[in-house]
Write a structure and sequence with these properties.
alpha+beta, 5 strands, 10% strand, binds zinc ion
């Protein structure tokens, strides 16, 4: 740490803030000799008042210790951290949605199949048999439609040709041939058909 540089920096920030040494000292509850010692590079502010000093000078501790304003670098880093946090949140939300798709889809499909098996093998009047089959087919279909809606909204599909990530329309998603969540669709960016993969984030 360069105490001389830090001292000059403190002096410059103090003047920018419009304080005399005496005023700054008073606000911090210390002697103005102490402030003068920092500014001449003879001593460093006590860690106990560093935060308060930074607040008064409108700088951060990082800047105080480096004796200069840290603009771009720290800003970028902060922005990057925020971006990462946001990205994680979106990813998590989409992951939950895709789980919901399975929670809704799997039991409904299973129940539908059981009803069909019962209708096929258990003795019952023909109209009940038909009603059960129709009911289970409608249920499976309805749930499939809901599930596709969830899948379409959660995250993006990535084109295998140009790697554009996009959200297709509901019907484009629903009518596309698919293997699991990979769907054969036309890419809105390059216009080519490919097996588009489900991805959770835009980038
Ligand atoms: Zn494409």
């Amino acid at each position: 740490m360069d105490q001389i540089k830090i001292g000059r920096f403190i002096a410059a920030c103090r003047k920018d803030a419009g304080f005399t040494q005496a005023v700054l000292a008073e606000k911090l509850g210390i002697s103005d000799r102490a402030v003068s010692k920092w500014e001449n590079g003879k001593s460093m502010p006590d860690s106990g008042i560093m935060l308060e000093l930074c607040e008064l000078l409108k700088i951060n501790v990082n800047e105080l210790l480096s004796g200069e304003k840290i603009m771009v670098e720290s800003y970028d880093k902060r922005a990057e951290e925020n971006l990462l946090a946001m990205r994680k949140e979106v990813e998590e939300k989409n992951r939950q949605l895709l789980k919901t798709e399975i929670w809704i889809g799997a039991p409904a499909t299973f129940a539908g199949l059981i009803i069909c098996v019962v209708a096929a093998y258990v003795e019952m009047p023909i109209w009940i048999r038909s009603a059960l089959v129709v009911f289970s087919l409608v249920m499976i279909l309805a749930v499939a439609f809901i599930a596709v809606g969830i899948e379409q909204k959660a995250g993006y599909y990535e084109c295998q040709k140009c790697h554009d990530r996009h959200v297709p329309t509901y019907w484009q998603t629903n009518l596309a041939m698919h293997m699991g969540r990979t769907r054969y669709m036309k890419c809105p960016a390059c216009g080519q058909y490919s097996w588009q993969k489900k991805v959770l984030t835009k980038e």
